[in-house]
Amino acid sequence: MEGGHSCLPINAEGNRGFKLKRILVLTVLAGMGHIRAAEAICEGIRSVSQESVVWLKDPLEEEPKKQRFINDFYVFMARHMPHLWGYFYNSRLLSGAYSPMRWYITRRYASLIAKNIKEWNPDIIVSTHPFLAAAVGVLKKRKGLNIPLISVATDFHVHLFGINKQVDTFIVPCEEVAEYLNRQGVNSEKIVSCGIPISLKFSVPLRIEEAKEKLGFDRDKPLVLLLSGGFGIGPVLDLLKAFRGIEGKFQLAIIIGRDEKLRKRAKEIAQTLNCPIKVFSFVDNMEEFVSAADMVITKPGGMSVSETLAKRVPLCLMQAIKGQEEWNVRILVKAGAAVYSKDVRDIPSVVIGLLNDEAKCSCMRESAGRLGKPNCSENIARLVINIGVTDNVSGIHKS
């Protein structure tokens, strides 16, 4: 995380004679999606405003054991107990107004965020996780905090935990999610539909043939890109095994992430396949791989699908966990940008069928283009820096 509070004095003046915008972007390490979204927002702000100072903060950084526990708990549940995770996600035990779990989480985060606010005195707070939006809401409602709060969705859904009247603006990926918030009692004037924030690198055009050549693939063969996420969550090995014995004029690329054991096992299985295949660990040029792909196979995480949509690439989604990923599947399949297969053994035949159906793929690319928002981070940045700075903001007031 970035601790940018020392880069400029608190009361510095910008080149145009007005007070510098001080923006606190809050995130949580629970998988990589929330952090990547927060990083993209910071990237967008820096690209459109030289006069703004932005800080990226996970409030639990000062408590690394708890930070690791939250991330490890999420990854373990998503990988080994997805149904139990889905139960908690959808249960009022977590999001209910009188839930002891909600009470503890919001107040723990609220006390940490209050310290950040007192240290940095931000003009605006941006949250990429519902826990944080709820915690800032508590500070605004009960501690007299008078700072605009923007809550940014990182999936095609907004969890009930983070929906509260103290949020000034909800950033959502599409109109369907905006309508969902309306049904939860959120005023339309508080909702902005502009996408899920992704790195500005995904807005840079790159022709598919050029991308294939740059990455060392055959430019004349369809490339199927398989993503496992930063922590290797999902049935990656089972899917690779499903491609055994499959004949076809295509090539495979698989990006494993940070799990070295999984990468080694994937390379062993790759040697048994009949098609050309390359196995990669974590990469920092994902935009080039997606640009090179004719089809992307992935779990339906909000960031992965948003990056793919931005490049107008058809999606084959697999093994959605109950909760946010089910919402992602529902909206993307309904829009025509993706197909979904519950059984990974069916995915090779589904993918080959799509690759052989150019008309279907063309329709999917058009649908992806309608949902994809490659410039979302910059649009969010403009919204943030154009919010009027509240007069006499003094952080947390004593009640």
TrEMBL record:
GO terms for cellular component: membrane. InterPro entries: Diacylglyc_glucosyltr_N, Glyco_trans_28_C, Glycosyltransf_28_UgtP. SUPFAM superfamilies: UDP-Glycosyltransferase/glycogen phosphorylase. GO terms for biological process: glycolipid biosynthetic process. One of its GO terms (molecular function) is hexosyltransferase activity. It is found in: Membrane. Residues 34-198 form the Diacylglycerol glucosyltransferase N-terminal domain. Keywords: Glycosyltransferase, Transferase. Residues 247-342 form the Glycosyl transferase family 28 C-terminal domain. The keyword Glycosyltransferase applies. It holds the Pfam family MGDG_synth. Belongs to the glycosyltransferase 28 family. This is Galactosyldiacylglycerol synthase. It comes from Candidatus Desantisbacteria bacterium CG23_combo_of_CG06-09_8_20_14_all_40_23.
